[in-house]
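Weekly structure sync, notes
Attendees: PL (lead), two postdocs, one rotation student
Agenda item 3: pending single-chain targets
PL asked that the sequence for the first pending target be pasted directly into the notes so everyone works from the same version. It is reproduced below exactly as submitted, 219 residues in total.
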Amino acid sequence: MVITLRAKEVNRRRSALQFSLTVLMMVLISVAAVAGPKKKGDGKWIDLFNGKDMTGWRMAGKGNFTVEDGALQTHAGMGMLWYESRKFANFTLRVEWKVNNHCNNSGIFVRFPEESDDPWFAVNNGYEIQIDDCDKKGLMFQTGSIYSFHPATKVASKPAGEWNVYEITVVGQHYTIVLNGEKVNEFDGKRGMDGYVGLQNHDPISRVSFRSVRVKEIK
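Predicted structure, written out during the meeting:
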């Protein structure tokens, strides 16, 4: 009887130990998953434009922007409104935009490396993702292009007055441009590995609006 009771006690303790080890392994696996390297695109969206005012933004060059109906509105130019609060390295930039007339001209600048009040600094040191359906020089200079560096595969913008969505993903030197859900450009650059982002006001005729300017960092 004593031997039987001891055997039962040993089995009970063995079962308890096995259960404890199983729980411990599950906890360790969970901790490793949380603490491990982040996957691309697992960051949170950061709103760069609050829909009310231009807090965090700075104007360079001619013309200006105003906030109208929750959107940034271009006036005159050539100039650029850029987010001066910080730089970004690897990221996805998501911007909604629309043009007032079909052939309006604008663009989105990424990764220009230094602060400047000259909009040409961004042109010459970063990359511009173009907004212009009508440039007569073709897809190298039309909407979806990395302006003067790499052509778009097609113009995928919506008619004037309708909102478009750009998703610009930059990892290392690789640039991927998605417009309204269609990939229209892939490009490998040679310029800086981080920098500021900006929105262009190109000329007095072009009226372009921007809203929901958001960035998600890629670790």
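Discussion points:
- Residues 27-41 have pLDDT under 50 and may be disordered.
- The chain has two domains: 1-36, 45-217.
Action: rotation student to compare against the earlier draft before next sync.
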